[in-house]
Amino acid sequence: MVCHYSVNIASMNDQTSSLKHLAPGDRPVRIGFYLVPNFPLMTFAAALDSLRQANRLAKAQRFEWVLISFDGLHVRSSSGLGFDADAAISKAPRCDVVILCAGINYSDAYDSNIFAWLRRIYSEGCILGAVSTAVFFLAKAGLLEGRRCAVHWESLASFRSEFPNCFATDDIFAIDGRFLTSSGGTVTLDMMLYLIAAVEGHGLASLISDQFNHPRIRRQDDVQRMAPEDRFGIKNAKLGFVVRRMEATLGDPVEISGLAESVALSLRQLERLFRASLGKSPSQFYIDLRMGRARELLVDTELSVAEIAEICGYESASHFSRFYRRLFKESPVATRRAEKQRERLTLRTMSIDA
Predict the structure, then answer these.
(1) Which of the following CATH numbers is that of domain 9-211: 3.30.2400.10, 3.40.50.880, 3.40.50.1400, 3.40.50.150?
(2) Can you give the pTM of this predicted structure?
(3) Distance CA 341, CA 288 (A)
Protein backbone atom coordinates (compact mmCIF):
# COMPACT_ATOMS: atom_id res chain seq x y z
CA MET A 1 0.00 0.00 0.00
CA VAL A 2 1.31 3.46 -0.85
CA CYS A 3 1.34 5.79 2.11
CA HIS A 4 0.65 9.49 1.79
CA TYR A 5 2.88 12.05 3.39
CA SER A 6 1.61 15.34 4.77
CA VAL A 7 4.31 17.94 4.38
CA ASN A 8 4.50 21.53 5.58
CA ILE A 9 7.10 23.62 3.81
CA ALA A 10 7.82 25.58 6.98
CA SER A 11 8.96 22.41 8.78
CA MET A 12 10.42 20.21 6.06
CA ASN A 13 11.04 16.70 7.32
CA ASP A 14 13.41 13.93 6.33
CA GLN A 15 11.91 13.68 2.83
CA THR A 16 14.01 16.68 1.88
CA SER A 17 17.04 15.78 3.99
CA SER A 18 18.73 14.54 0.84
CA LEU A 19 18.60 18.12 -0.47
CA LYS A 20 20.40 19.57 2.54
CA HIS A 21 23.87 19.15 1.04
CA LEU A 22 22.82 21.70 -1.59
CA ALA A 23 22.95 24.41 1.06
CA PRO A 24 24.73 27.58 -0.13
CA GLY A 25 28.48 27.21 -0.47
CA ASP A 26 31.20 28.98 -2.37
CA ARG A 27 29.52 28.41 -5.74
CA PRO A 28 25.99 28.41 -7.21
CA VAL A 29 23.95 25.22 -7.21
CA ARG A 30 24.12 23.91 -10.77
CA ILE A 31 20.93 22.44 -12.22
CA GLY A 32 20.89 20.64 -15.55
CA PHE A 33 17.73 20.38 -17.63
CA TYR A 34 17.64 17.37 -19.92
CA LEU A 35 15.17 18.21 -22.71
CA VAL A 36 13.40 15.34 -24.46
CA PRO A 37 12.00 16.24 -27.92
CA ASN A 38 8.40 17.49 -27.61
CA PHE A 39 8.93 18.47 -23.97
CA PRO A 40 6.13 20.62 -22.45
CA LEU A 41 7.09 24.28 -22.52
CA MET A 42 4.98 25.29 -19.49
CA THR A 43 6.66 22.86 -17.13
CA PHE A 44 10.14 23.76 -18.35
CA ALA A 45 9.43 27.48 -18.00
CA ALA A 46 8.07 27.00 -14.47
CA ALA A 47 11.24 25.18 -13.47
CA LEU A 48 13.72 27.51 -15.13
CA ASP A 49 12.10 30.82 -14.28
CA SER A 50 11.79 29.96 -10.60
CA LEU A 51 15.61 29.75 -10.50
CA ARG A 52 15.99 33.07 -12.33
CA GLN A 53 13.64 34.68 -9.88
CA ALA A 54 15.56 33.16 -6.96
CA ASN A 55 18.79 34.81 -8.15
CA ARG A 56 17.03 38.12 -8.70
CA LEU A 57 15.39 38.24 -5.28
CA ALA A 58 18.48 36.96 -3.46
CA LYS A 59 20.55 39.61 -5.28
CA ALA A 60 23.15 36.94 -5.89
CA GLN A 61 23.69 34.00 -8.21
CA ARG A 62 22.48 31.19 -6.00
CA PHE A 63 21.63 28.94 -8.95
CA GLU A 64 23.01 28.36 -12.42
CA TRP A 65 21.65 26.10 -15.13
CA VAL A 66 22.70 24.20 -18.20
CA LEU A 67 20.51 22.81 -21.01
CA ILE A 68 21.31 19.25 -22.06
CA SER A 69 20.07 17.23 -25.02
CA PHE A 70 20.94 13.77 -26.24
CA ASP A 71 23.32 15.00 -28.95
CA GLY A 72 23.89 18.57 -27.81
CA LEU A 73 21.73 19.98 -30.63
CA HIS A 74 18.60 22.11 -30.77
CA VAL A 75 15.47 20.61 -29.13
CA ARG A 76 11.89 21.56 -29.94
CA SER A 77 9.11 21.68 -27.38
CA SER A 78 5.63 20.32 -28.09
CA SER A 79 4.53 23.88 -28.92
CA GLY A 80 7.14 24.12 -31.68
CA LEU A 81 9.39 26.54 -29.81
CA GLY A 82 12.88 25.20 -29.32
CA PHE A 83 16.13 25.81 -27.48
CA ASP A 84 19.80 25.32 -28.26
CA ALA A 85 21.37 22.86 -25.86
CA ASP A 86 24.59 23.72 -24.03
CA ALA A 87 25.86 20.15 -24.02
CA ALA A 88 25.23 16.56 -25.05
CA ILE A 89 24.89 13.88 -22.38
CA SER A 90 28.39 12.66 -23.27
CA LYS A 91 29.89 16.07 -22.49
CA ALA A 92 27.50 17.48 -19.89
CA PRO A 93 29.21 19.25 -16.98
CA ARG A 94 28.79 17.83 -13.50
CA CYS A 95 25.49 19.02 -12.02
CA ASP A 96 24.12 19.01 -8.49
CA VAL A 97 20.64 18.34 -9.85
CA VAL A 98 19.46 17.08 -13.24
CA ILE A 99 15.79 17.50 -14.12
CA LEU A 100 14.35 15.65 -17.11
CA CYS A 101 11.52 17.30 -19.06
CA ALA A 102 9.38 15.12 -21.32
CA GLY A 103 5.90 15.20 -22.78
CA ILE A 104 4.09 13.38 -25.59
CA ASN A 105 5.80 10.59 -27.55
CA TYR A 106 8.36 10.29 -24.77
CA SER A 107 9.13 6.64 -25.56
CA ASP A 108 10.36 7.62 -29.04
CA ALA A 109 13.38 9.14 -27.29
CA TYR A 110 14.29 6.05 -25.26
CA ASP A 111 17.96 5.15 -25.66
CA SER A 112 20.21 2.85 -23.66
CA ASN A 113 22.85 5.60 -23.56
CA ILE A 114 20.44 7.91 -21.74
CA PHE A 115 19.62 5.27 -19.15
CA ALA A 116 23.31 4.52 -18.61
CA TRP A 117 24.03 8.24 -18.21
CA LEU A 118 21.26 8.60 -15.60
CA ARG A 119 22.55 5.63 -13.63
CA ARG A 120 26.08 7.02 -13.73
CA ILE A 121 25.30 10.54 -12.56
CA TYR A 122 23.03 9.17 -9.83
CA SER A 123 25.87 6.95 -8.59
CA GLU A 124 28.05 10.08 -8.47
CA GLY A 125 25.61 11.75 -6.06
CA CYS A 126 23.45 13.77 -8.44
CA ILE A 127 19.86 14.51 -7.43
CA LEU A 128 17.50 13.47 -10.22
CA GLY A 129 14.21 15.12 -11.05
CA ALA A 130 11.55 14.32 -13.62
CA VAL A 131 8.69 16.40 -14.93
CA SER A 132 5.52 14.91 -16.44
CA THR A 133 6.27 11.75 -18.48
CA ALA A 134 10.01 12.04 -17.81
CA VAL A 135 9.37 9.83 -14.78
CA PHE A 136 9.23 6.94 -17.29
CA PHE A 137 12.91 7.54 -18.11
CA LEU A 138 13.98 7.21 -14.48
CA ALA A 139 11.89 4.07 -14.09
CA LYS A 140 13.16 2.61 -17.38
CA ALA A 141 16.72 3.20 -16.13
CA GLY A 142 15.87 1.04 -13.11
CA LEU A 143 16.28 3.87 -10.63
CA LEU A 144 12.79 4.04 -9.12
CA GLU A 145 12.39 0.47 -7.84
CA GLY A 146 10.72 0.79 -4.44
CA ARG A 147 10.67 4.57 -4.77
CA ARG A 148 7.71 6.86 -4.43
CA CYS A 149 7.08 8.97 -7.54
CA ALA A 150 4.42 11.34 -8.81
CA VAL A 151 2.82 10.56 -12.17
CA HIS A 152 0.35 12.65 -14.16
CA TRP A 153 -3.16 11.27 -13.80
CA GLU A 154 -3.38 10.56 -17.56
CA SER A 155 -0.30 8.33 -17.42
CA LEU A 156 -0.78 6.80 -13.97
CA ALA A 157 -2.45 3.56 -15.08
CA SER A 158 0.11 3.02 -17.83
CA PHE A 159 3.02 3.66 -15.47
CA ARG A 160 1.70 1.32 -12.80
CA SER A 161 1.18 -1.40 -15.37
CA GLU A 162 4.70 -1.05 -16.80
CA PHE A 163 6.52 -0.51 -13.50
CA PRO A 164 4.62 -2.36 -10.75
CA ASN A 165 7.60 -2.23 -8.36
CA CYS A 166 7.60 1.58 -8.27
CA PHE A 167 5.34 3.33 -5.76
CA ALA A 168 3.46 5.53 -8.25
CA THR A 169 1.19 8.12 -6.65
CA ASP A 170 -1.33 10.66 -7.92
CA ASP A 171 0.05 13.33 -5.57
CA ILE A 172 1.08 16.48 -7.40
CA PHE A 173 4.78 15.86 -6.77
CA ALA A 174 6.95 13.56 -4.70
CA ILE A 175 10.34 13.65 -3.02
CA ASP A 176 11.97 10.32 -2.16
CA GLY A 177 15.65 10.29 -1.33
CA ARG A 178 17.53 11.94 -4.21
CA PHE A 179 14.52 11.81 -6.54
CA LEU A 180 12.06 14.62 -7.24
CA THR A 181 9.13 13.90 -9.54
CA SER A 182 6.41 16.28 -10.68
CA SER A 183 3.12 15.35 -12.32
CA GLY A 184 3.68 18.29 -14.66
CA GLY A 185 2.05 21.57 -15.59
CA THR A 186 2.00 24.32 -12.97
CA VAL A 187 2.83 21.74 -10.28
CA THR A 188 6.47 21.96 -11.34
CA LEU A 189 6.62 25.44 -9.82
CA ASP A 190 5.61 24.01 -6.42
CA MET A 191 8.25 21.29 -6.68
CA MET A 192 10.92 23.85 -7.55
CA LEU A 193 9.88 26.07 -4.65
CA TYR A 194 10.43 23.09 -2.33
CA LEU A 195 13.87 22.63 -3.83
CA ILE A 196 14.69 26.32 -3.45
CA ALA A 197 13.37 26.29 0.14
CA ALA A 198 15.66 23.36 0.96
CA VAL A 199 18.67 25.27 -0.37
CA GLU A 200 17.90 28.89 0.53
CA GLY A 201 15.11 28.71 3.08
CA HIS A 202 11.37 29.13 3.12
CA GLY A 203 11.57 32.93 3.02
CA LEU A 204 13.02 33.09 -0.48
CA ALA A 205 10.59 30.43 -1.75
CA SER A 206 7.68 32.50 -0.43
CA LEU A 207 8.98 35.66 -2.14
CA ILE A 208 9.20 33.81 -5.46
CA SER A 209 5.69 32.46 -5.02
CA ASP A 210 4.40 36.00 -4.45
CA GLN A 211 6.24 37.29 -7.53
CA PHE A 212 4.47 34.70 -9.67
CA ASN A 213 1.05 35.57 -8.15
CA HIS A 214 1.05 32.02 -6.80
CA PRO A 215 -0.90 32.48 -3.56
CA ARG A 216 -0.09 29.14 -1.96
CA ILE A 217 2.82 26.72 -2.25
CA ARG A 218 0.92 23.47 -2.62
CA ARG A 219 1.72 20.40 -0.56
CA GLN A 220 2.91 17.22 -2.19
CA ASP A 221 -0.36 15.42 -1.45
CA ASP A 222 -2.60 18.07 -2.99
CA VAL A 223 -4.88 16.77 -5.74
CA GLN A 224 -3.85 17.00 -9.39
CA ARG A 225 -7.23 17.57 -10.99
CA MET A 226 -9.75 20.38 -10.73
CA ALA A 227 -12.61 19.62 -8.34
CA PRO A 228 -15.76 18.22 -10.04
CA GLU A 229 -17.75 21.23 -8.81
CA ASP A 230 -15.52 23.52 -10.90
CA ARG A 231 -15.07 21.15 -13.84
CA PHE A 232 -18.78 20.45 -14.36
CA GLY A 233 -20.28 23.59 -12.83
CA ILE A 234 -21.87 21.63 -9.97
CA LYS A 235 -23.45 23.69 -7.20
CA ASN A 236 -25.06 20.92 -5.16
CA ALA A 237 -22.81 19.39 -2.48
CA LYS A 238 -24.43 15.95 -2.66
CA LEU A 239 -24.06 15.84 -6.42
CA GLY A 240 -20.41 16.84 -6.13
CA PHE A 241 -19.82 14.03 -3.64
CA VAL A 242 -21.41 11.45 -5.94
CA VAL A 243 -19.39 12.60 -8.96
CA ARG A 244 -16.18 12.36 -6.92
CA ARG A 245 -17.09 8.80 -5.95
CA MET A 246 -17.77 7.98 -9.58
CA GLU A 247 -14.37 9.30 -10.65
CA ALA A 248 -12.67 7.33 -7.87
CA THR A 249 -14.34 4.05 -8.87
CA LEU A 250 -14.07 3.97 -12.67
CA GLY A 251 -12.41 0.55 -12.51
CA ASP A 252 -14.89 -0.90 -10.03
CA PRO A 253 -18.21 0.87 -10.62
CA VAL A 254 -20.65 1.29 -7.74
CA GLU A 255 -24.37 0.63 -8.17
CA ILE A 256 -26.30 3.86 -8.71
CA SER A 257 -28.61 2.91 -5.84
CA GLY A 258 -25.54 2.68 -3.59
CA LEU A 259 -24.42 6.12 -4.68
CA ALA A 260 -27.85 7.54 -3.89
CA GLU A 261 -27.82 5.90 -0.47
CA SER A 262 -24.37 7.37 0.29
CA VAL A 263 -25.85 10.90 0.15
CA ALA A 264 -29.20 10.03 1.77
CA LEU A 265 -31.21 10.38 -1.44
CA SER A 266 -33.63 8.03 -3.12
CA LEU A 267 -32.73 6.71 -6.55
CA ARG A 268 -35.43 8.88 -8.09
CA GLN A 269 -34.15 12.00 -6.30
CA LEU A 270 -30.62 11.38 -7.54
CA GLU A 271 -31.92 10.87 -11.08
CA ARG A 272 -33.72 14.22 -10.96
CA LEU A 273 -30.65 15.95 -9.52
CA PHE A 274 -28.39 14.64 -12.31
CA ARG A 275 -30.82 15.53 -15.07
CA ALA A 276 -31.41 19.03 -13.69
CA SER A 277 -27.72 19.82 -13.18
CA LEU A 278 -25.89 17.74 -15.79
CA GLY A 279 -28.56 16.94 -18.37
CA LYS A 280 -28.22 13.16 -18.21
CA SER A 281 -28.96 10.22 -15.95
CA PRO A 282 -26.43 9.09 -13.30
CA SER A 283 -25.78 5.85 -15.20
CA GLN A 284 -25.13 7.66 -18.48
CA PHE A 285 -22.86 10.17 -16.74
CA TYR A 286 -20.94 7.29 -15.15
CA ILE A 287 -20.53 5.58 -18.52
CA ASP A 288 -19.36 8.83 -20.11
CA LEU A 289 -16.71 9.23 -17.40
CA ARG A 290 -15.45 5.70 -17.97
CA MET A 291 -15.46 6.09 -21.73
CA GLY A 292 -13.69 9.43 -21.51
CA ARG A 293 -10.97 7.83 -19.42
CA ALA A 294 -10.74 4.96 -21.89
CA ARG A 295 -10.26 7.38 -24.78
CA GLU A 296 -7.47 9.17 -22.89
CA LEU A 297 -5.71 5.85 -22.30
CA LEU A 298 -6.05 4.87 -25.96
CA VAL A 299 -4.56 8.15 -27.11
CA ASP A 300 -1.89 8.67 -24.44
CA THR A 301 -0.66 5.15 -23.59
CA GLU A 302 0.38 1.91 -25.24
CA LEU A 303 -1.91 -0.21 -23.05
CA SER A 304 -3.81 -2.92 -24.90
CA VAL A 305 -7.56 -2.64 -25.42
CA ALA A 306 -8.03 -5.50 -22.94
CA GLU A 307 -5.97 -3.68 -20.29
CA ILE A 308 -7.93 -0.46 -20.84
CA ALA A 309 -11.20 -2.36 -20.58
CA GLU A 310 -10.13 -3.72 -17.20
CA ILE A 311 -8.96 -0.33 -15.92
CA CYS A 312 -12.32 1.21 -16.89
CA GLY A 313 -14.38 -1.53 -15.24
CA TYR A 314 -15.50 -3.66 -18.19
CA GLU A 315 -15.58 -7.43 -17.95
CA SER A 316 -14.05 -8.02 -21.37
CA ALA A 317 -12.49 -6.21 -24.31
CA SER A 318 -15.47 -7.05 -26.52
CA HIS A 319 -17.97 -5.71 -23.97
CA PHE A 320 -15.93 -2.51 -23.66
CA SER A 321 -15.58 -2.15 -27.44
CA ARG A 322 -19.34 -2.33 -27.96
CA PHE A 323 -19.95 0.51 -25.52
CA TYR A 324 -17.06 2.51 -26.97
CA ARG A 325 -18.29 2.20 -30.54
CA ARG A 326 -21.82 3.15 -29.50
CA LEU A 327 -20.58 6.37 -27.89
CA PHE A 328 -17.78 7.46 -30.25
CA LYS A 329 -19.00 5.90 -33.53
CA GLU A 330 -15.67 4.17 -34.06
CA SER A 331 -13.74 1.27 -32.58
CA PRO A 332 -11.02 1.72 -29.95
CA VAL A 333 -8.45 0.53 -32.51
CA ALA A 334 -9.65 3.16 -35.00
CA THR A 335 -9.26 5.90 -32.38
CA ARG A 336 -5.70 4.86 -31.64
CA ARG A 337 -4.82 4.59 -35.34
CA ALA A 338 -6.24 8.04 -36.10
CA GLU A 339 -4.29 9.59 -33.21
CA LYS A 340 -1.03 8.05 -34.39
CA GLN A 341 -1.66 9.37 -37.90
CA ARG A 342 -2.35 12.84 -36.47
CA GLU A 343 0.90 12.73 -34.47
CA ARG A 344 2.91 11.69 -37.53
CA LEU A 345 1.40 14.53 -39.55
CA THR A 346 2.19 17.03 -36.79
CA LEU A 347 5.80 15.86 -36.55
CA ARG A 348 6.15 16.00 -40.35
CA THR A 349 4.80 19.56 -40.40
CA MET A 350 7.18 20.63 -37.62
CA SER A 351 10.09 19.04 -39.50
CA ILE A 352 9.21 20.95 -42.68
CA ASP A 353 8.90 24.22 -40.75
CA ALA A 354 12.31 23.67 -39.23
Answers:
(1) 3.40.50.880
(2) 0.63
(3) 25
